[in-house]
Structure formats: C-alpha cells, structure tokens
Amino acid sequence: MERMRKVQDYEESRVDKGHAELLSAIHSNGWEVSRPQDVVQFSQRLNAHASANTEARFYETILSRLYFRHLPDRYDSIPTAHVETFQWLFSEDIPVGSKAHWNSFPTWVQESNSEIYWIAGKPGSGKSTLMKYLYHHHSLSALLEQWTQGKPLTKAGFYFWNSGSAMQMSHLGLLQALVHACGSDDMNALIAAMPERWQEYVAYGGGVEPFQESELRRIFRNIISDESRRFFFLIDGLDEFSGEPREIINFVLDTVRPNVKICVASRPWIPFEDAFQQRPSLLLQWLTHRDIVTYVTEHFHENEHFVRLRACYPAESQTLIPKIVEKASGVFLWVYLVVQSLLEGLSNADRMSDLQARLAALPSDLEALFDVILARLRPTGRLQPNYYEQACETFRLLRAYREAPRHILGGGGNPTLLALYFADDPDTTSSFRAAFSPMGKAEICQKTEQMRRRIKARSGGLLEMQRASLVDDQDEEDMDIVTIYDHTVSYLHRTARDYMESEEIWQTVLEASGYAAFPCDKRWANAHLWLQKTSPRIFSSAVQAVESEYRCLDIAITIQERTGVFQQDYLEEVLRATARDYGIKRSPHAVVEDYRIMTEQVRVSTSPVADGAASDHAGSITQKAKKEVALRPKPPSAKKGQHKRRRWFSIRKLLGNP
C-alpha cells in the first residue's frame, strides 16, 4: 500500500516536471505558433516527452508486477548482528579462538577470477544474521568499488525462507526479487531486457501480464549479460529452497560470469558441499568463538543481579562464561536460549551454584534443548495444564495458516498478531455478531499486546513476534497504526519449527489439543471475518476490501472441501461488506464459482508447464469465464451517480470480472 502511494506520487511529480520543461522550452526558445519551424520543434519536443512518459509508465508497471507482498519480510525478521560481532569477516586475520582455516572474504570480493563464495554453517549458527550484516556493511561497499573499477554496480539480495509464503521459498520469487532489484537501478536496462513486452505495451497497452518463470530466466540472463555493468548477488538459505538442491545449485552456477559475484549461504548438506567446497568458503561455527564470548559477556554484565553475584563470587563467575561458550559449539541459537534461561534464573535470585547447576543440566545438542523446553511446557513441568493445551492450539493454528491452500493471494506466510488474537477465540461464530466498525489504534494496541503476552507466557520462547521490539521497547504512541497492525507471529527459528512439527512431537501436540475436535479451519474463518469487519479505515480501499474477501472465500472453500458442507451463512455475512460499501448484491454460490475460475487462471499462469499448453488451458478457462459474464448483474445505472459506477467497475475488475 505504501509502495503504491509512492508510485503514484512519482507519477504525479514526473508529469508536473515534464509540463514545466515544455513550458520552459517554449519561453527560452521564444517559439511562436505563427512560425512553422517553431511548431515543428515544439512537436518534436512534445513527442519526445510523450515517449518518455510511455517508458516511465511501462517501467513503473513492470516494477509493480515484479514486487510481491512478502518480499522484504524475511530480511526484516532476521536479527541484527550483536555489537562487535562478525567484524572478523572483513579482516585478513584469523578470528581469535577459531578452529579452522577460511578463505578471506575481502580477498574474494576484489579478485577478478573468483565468482562464488559459500558461507556454510550448521543449524542455528547465525548464517542469516551474518548475511544481513555483510550485505549492508560499509566495508563491502568499499571492496566492491575496487572490484568494479568505476563500472556501474547493481547489488541485490534474496533470503529464502521455508517458514514464509510460497514466493519466499521458490525459484519464481528469487527471480522476481533479483530482476526487480536490477531494474530498480536501471530503467533502460530493464526495458531492454524484455523487448517483447515493451513492443506489446507501445502497440496496444499490453505486456503487463504476470510473469512466468521461463520468461524471468530469459530476462535475468539478458540483464546480467551486460558486460558494461557489475553485479553482486547475495542469496541466503539455499537449504530453505522449496525445490531440489540441484535446481538452485544449477541456477547459481549458470549465473556465473566475469562481471558477476555471488555470495551464497546454506547448511553444509552434501549437494552443496559437492558444488561449492572447492570454491572460496567458510564454516561459520568454527569462526564465532570470540563473537559468542562478546554476546554472553555483554548480556551478563548488563544484568544487575549478575553484577552483584560476581562481586560476591568472583572466581565462580569467571568460569561460567567460558563453560557456556565451550558447550555452545558455535551455535548462536543455543547460546540465545541458554542465556535467556540463565537470565531467568538470575531474576529468580539464583545463586552462582544454581546457575552452574542449571547450565550443567541443559544439553549441548539443540534438539535435546528443545526437548527440555517442551518438557517445561507440559503440565508436569512448570505451566498450568490449560496453558500447555493453549500452546499446542497456537502451534496448530500457525501450521494451518501456513499450509492453507491460498488460491489467489498465495500460500504460506505467518499470521499477524491481531489475526491470531481473533483465531485464539474459542467461539468460532463471534464474528457474526461483530459490527462493521473499524478499530482504532488504542483497540488494536490492546488486542495485540494481550496476544503477545499470552504467546510469551505459553510458548516457552519457541515463538516470537516479528518487530516485537517495537512493542517491548517503544511507546505505542510513537508507532503508526500500520506498524502495529502488521506485527506477525512465527517460530523463533527454522530449527524450532522443524522440531515441533516432526512426526513424534506433532503427535503430542495433536493429542494435547484434541486432534480433530480442535476446529483450526473454523477458527481462521472466524478470524478472517473479524478482520474484514473491523479493519482500520486506512485499509478501506477497494484493494484491501477484495483481499479481505479473498481470504474469507479461501477458508470457506477449504472448509467445504473438507466437510462437504457449503458455508452459506458464513459467505452471506462476508458478502454483506461488499453490499454495504459498493451496493452490489451477489449470491454466495455465484461468487464461489467466480472465485474458482480465477483460481484456475492463476494456477495456469504460474504453472511450470510449457507455455503452449498453458495458453491452451487458459483459453478454455477464458471461454468458461465469458459464459459466466451473461449471468452476472448489470452495473448500476449512471443515473445513480458516476462516482458509485466507477467504484463498482473498480471492485468488479479487482474481483476478476472482465
């Protein structure tokens, strides 16, 4: 939404600037309409201005097509590196306490005959945090400047995330992100890379349909084949790619060119070792000894309880930190969880001997540590019986949301804190009684804060709120309503999700939450309807209205497919919103049928099948869609107001009607 506003502002400022330039040319050249040569020159200038406008409109349209909703989410969710950690990466010296040789990253960046650098590390070692750190580090900019030798540079990054949406873990998402970044740097290069689309746009306003993966591959190759430019790509989480490892490996290897450098990160799986181990690389867990010492030391020294204990037991306190570092084996996630446990002990007035015992009782293996955390969540541990049950319900809600078959908006992703608040309501029909009344900032803050505290008290630290620092450390008055509204909930780390959703552990989650008796789908249906009715006024545009309706249609169709029962009452309540805002009355059956047609069109347009086969299938769908047009209601008469008519056509187009 913010991006669309910026695009609109850009368009308006560009048009105003063009008009000003034309007026300036008329005055500075003294053109007169009575002189034919002046008319010719003005006509030439006007044509050039119109051509530039056409290019700019096409460029912004294509950038908007390439951008997708969840593009920045993974980057935003990665923790920022702790102060004074990872500084060794831009040094030629071997990090203090490291156990292995590594290839110098600065040397690799400056070398002209080395294209790939591989950062490997075991789960939880901090690979994504390191990648985020290096991408924006000023030293990287300086090194790249030396490598480019004055040639234009394009820098782009992509962070695979298999806990996110389908686009965040797919080849299509990677290509759209990289082409978008390359195009954002150079309008002419982007237009030149897709000549067919540009010709269609000039000829009849075409060329703006969704991209297919095969086309994006060609466009990407066209862009990076420009030897007058240099390209630096960072691709994190190759092991979180949804396809086969060989597919993403082949993409990396095919991208290699003398004018391209690629830094990739992954777990040290055998396919990645075979592909990259002969290239410059590092194994992260062998290089972070000093970083972990810094992290643990600062957290303890900032804790007033530890400072007092250290004064009373100086000898014992000096041994605690080295024991933590040794036991961590280079896994930052383990360190984070253990430090939180020890800080909790300090808050409970643990003695130094208690802290030593607590540390000794915690296993050094990350999965075994998750076992301990989960044991504390169970009724036999520290939580009340209903707390454990509620935690398991939350785990199921998160998985159901991520795996829901999103037909139009795309599957996957993590729910907002506010959406989870409504899904947490045991009354799955409460939304039917809700009024169509947008929430204000104070109400949203109250609900999100309540849900944040419930999750924190019940999840044992396995779940976290993205941008939670805004809630914890910043006054709510300093936050805009969009920021509060968009807080999301996810697992602390991929390893935590993999552990909880492993076959053995998931069975305990199902058992604690009542197996099929827990109505995940109906909980989410209730939540989506609540959001449709109460979204704040800043989201009241037609686009937001349609997106909200789509989510409700998705879950209604899902419930019907799983139960065989058409959700008549629910859909009627959903459609009341459109009837209220746009004066359009539609039957639930007709809307569901329209939605299924659009779903099939989206599926075909993004299918990896051959272009010809996709076109043939899309053609049959289009014919079916045309037959549906005759059955749809005619638009409101112009006599009822041109404004209402325009709104009706807008929402009609957004709903996929011809």
Tally of separate helices? 31
At CATH level 3, the topology of the largest domain is: Rossmann fold
Major sheet attributes: 5 strands, parallel
Domains (count): 5
Shape: globular
User: Which CATH class of the largest domain?
Assistant: Alpha Beta
How large is the radius of gyration? 28 Å
- Structural class per helix/strand content? mainly alpha
Low-confidence stretches: 1-12, 468-478, 608-642, 644-658
Distance between the termini: 24 Å
Assigned CATH superfamily of the largest domain: P-loop containing nucleotide triphosphate hydrolases
Share of β-strand residues:
5-15%
Using the 3D structure, state the CATH architecture of the largest domain. Answer: 3-Layer(aba) Sandwich
Keywords:
single chain; 5 domains; Rossmann fold; two-stranded antiparallel sheet; disordered N terminus; five-stranded parallel beta sheet; 31 helices; mainly alpha; globular; 61% helix; 658 residues; disordered C terminus
